[in-house]
């Protein structure tokens, strides 16, 4: 440090040292100011993304509850014995405050697909009600409604789980089985029921076909008047 002492002895040296110290202090101050701005900007963006995730999570949570209501729906019979539902079909509408570009593309795409899935579920159930199911119980319609909205509800659960893992958002406490368990159990039950119905229908069709062949053979035997005609 002797050279610094020697430099400081004359006015020129003092000026050089002052200029250098001033530059160091100014540069360090600018660095601190820039670092502060970067940290504040990061913190604000992080809070904004967390807020967007919370908006998504609360909307999904409400929609999931609607889907569970479809499964737990209490039905009633009117004076003619026709069965009616008591809850409206689930629907989802994203809040206008959501800043979609701030959300990761894959997550945004899955969210934006959800309203279309909801519409398709409602339309499929309505088709079954109009062309497959019938009074008085409309059992096929209500089964299709539960099946479709269990699938859509399960899709919403997966998105909500992603939000919880990535952004540490919370969902409402439920004092029963988790929504995922409810939806999976409902889907499995309905698929098993449909498979059983299909097997039953195959057996009925096979018996009807066998009866048809026997009747045709009996008619042929009578018309032709010989046992060989019935073979």
Strand order of the largest sheet: 1-2
Average pLDDT number: 81
Give the overall shape, derived from the CA principal axes: elongated
Count structural domains: 1
Describe the 3D structure.
It is a single chain. With 231 residues, this protein is mainly alpha-helical. It has one domain (2-230). Helix content is 74%, strand content 2%. The chain has helices at 2-8, 11-71, 105-131, 139-167, 179-224; strands at residues 76-77, 83-84. Strands 1-2 form a two-stranded antiparallel ribbon. Strand 1 and strand 2 form a beta hairpin. The protein is elongated. Residues 35-43 have low confidence and may be disordered.
Summary, kept brief:
The protein is mostly helical. The protein has helices at 2-8, 11-71, 105-131, 139-167, 179-224, and strands at 76-77, 83-84. Helix 2 packs across helix 5, helix 3 (105-131) runs antiparallel to helix 4 (139-167) and helix 4 (139-167) packs antiparallel against helix 5.
Secondary-structure map with pairings?
Layout: H1 2-8, H2 11-71, E1 76-77, E2 83-84, H3 105-131, H4 139-167, H5 179-224
Antiparallel strand pairs: 1-2
Task: Please name the defining characteristics of this protein.
single chain; 231 residues; mainly alpha; two-stranded antiparallel ribbon; 5 helices; elongated
């Amino acid at each position: 440090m002797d050279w610094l002492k020697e430099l400081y002895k004359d006015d020129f040296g003092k000026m050089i040292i002052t200029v250098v110290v001033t530059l160091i202090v100014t540069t360090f101050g600018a660095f601190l100011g820039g670092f502060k701005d970067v940290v504040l900007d990061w913190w604000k963006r992080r809070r904004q993304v967390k807020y967007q995730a919370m908006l998504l999570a609360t909307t999904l949570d409400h929609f999931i509850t609607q889907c569970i209501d479809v499964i737990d729906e209490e039905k009633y019979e009117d004076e003619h014995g026709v069965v009616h539902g008591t809850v409206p079909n689930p629907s989802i509408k994203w809040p206008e405050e959501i800043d979609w570009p701030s959300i990761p593309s894959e997550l945004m795409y899955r969210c934006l697909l959800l309203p279309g899935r909801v519409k398709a579920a409602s339309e499929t159930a309505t088709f079954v009600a109009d062309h497959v199911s019938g009074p008085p119980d409309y059992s096929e319609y209500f089964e299709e409604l539960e099946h479709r909205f269990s699938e859509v509800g399960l899709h919403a659960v997966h998105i909500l789980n992603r939000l919880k893992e990535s952004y540490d958002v919370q969902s409402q406490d439920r004092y029963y089985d988790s929504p995922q368990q409810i939806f999976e159990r409902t889907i499995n039950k309905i698929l098993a029921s449909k498979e059983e119905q299909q097997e039953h229908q195959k057996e009925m069709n096979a018996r009807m076909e066998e009866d048809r062949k026997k009747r045709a053979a009996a008619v042929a035997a009578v018309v032709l008047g010989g046992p060989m005609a019935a073979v």
